[in-house]
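Raw record, unedited: Amphoterin-induced protein 1-like
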Amino acid sequence: MAGPRPHAAAASPRGRGPAAVLTLALLLPAVGVSAQLPRTPLDCRRACVCASNIVSCPGANLASVPLALPPQTAVLDLSFNSLGRLRDDWTTVDLGRLHTLLLSHNELVFLSYEAFGHVTELRYLDLSSNGLRQLDEFIFEPLEHLEVLLLYNNRIAQIDHSAFSGLGSLRRLYLSHNQVARFPLELVKERSRLEALQLLDVSSNRIKVLPLHELQALPAWLKNGVYFHNLSLPCSCELYDVVAGWNLKELSSVTDFKSSHTCLLPGPQKERMPILDLDKAHLNCTEVTMTNEVAYLQQYLVLDCDTRQKDVTKSWVLPGNIPVSQANKSAEIRSDGGLQIGPLMVNDSGVYTCYATGDNMNETLHVTVVVFNSTVSGGLENLKTAYTTLVACIISVVMVFIYLFLTPCRCAFCPGQGLEKDKASDTPHSSTVSIPQAHRESRAEGGGFPYRQVAFLDPKDQLEQNGRLNPIHEEDEECKGFSGERKRSEAEAGGAPMVV
């Protein structure tokens, strides 16, 4: 008879062991999703280094921000960890002294709307090299003192127009190496830009169109900090004008990355071409050169001292190395650092020099002014004179034609009227040949002229008449408009041909 198996009860749990382990392994992810893992308190002995007001925990394999951070913390370094979300309660105390927060090289994919409500004194925020995909509206609004924001090397594709609202102190914004497809013009445009912003880096993104006209209108100190290299921009002469012009002014945004400023040539192959070479081949763009200021007499001209730095001290020197002073009534330095000159004279032509002095560097700009020896209206007056002369010539020609072809008809051609001559027309001074009426009648009956009576002009009288055929006091009379009678010499037949 078989006895009881003492290990049967123990064998059953041992037999169900693998199934229980498998069930527990499947339940663990669900538990992780439904509830946060317990946060560990700050460990200044093993995971972090706590020195005065600095807490440094890089590479500590942290999945969440440690608890109980010291309220006097000014610098918090949590880079190179495994942080995935930055919630609104990541710190339970207000860190009113915190000015630097380093969160780079984590796994951040989410930023709470109220994530920065407890660190409103931040001046430096590093969120680079994470997995962020979008920036929601007013996400950084509490950070009114923030000066530097690093967002490069993420996956940001969408940026709300109000994402950076409230950042009135922001000086440098790094957005390179993302998937941004739109240039954030609202950050640099005249009326909506961040007033303190001096650097905007949108290089190495998916931007295919730039607002070139708006970029050209920016002041030089802001152009100097707008980086847009390594983009897939289509080649055009407008793009060349912008890049070449900035290169001539030695702006860092172009000179520091000349080889990376490329564009795509038209065509199926989309060949990349250095933008600064577009004037030499392919599009044959016009070379960009520095232009001079041109003005006329009595004009007023404003010369800009467009420096690469903001908030610098500017001074001007006139041609002949003459400093601008209150004694010079024709030159005045404006509140924005520009120089107003005028009313201009010819001797105001020359090179004007602006000296800009700043904390980091000094800069010198030269502006050449050419004053023409005429007023602005002088050209218009000359043009009016030319048109007046042309019209006068046309009128003169028309009057000549009227005189030649539309003058009142002579008696020989007036309908129903005969020829009228002076009685003295048959004088020896006449150069015409007169045929008696009888001979004309005989010609009408079929006979010819039996003789011709010729009177030659006396040489002396010919000189006195200055080449005229009739003497001065013996001119032909014109036709009478309303009379059918005609007066003629008794000895003159009229209408006879002239004999040369």
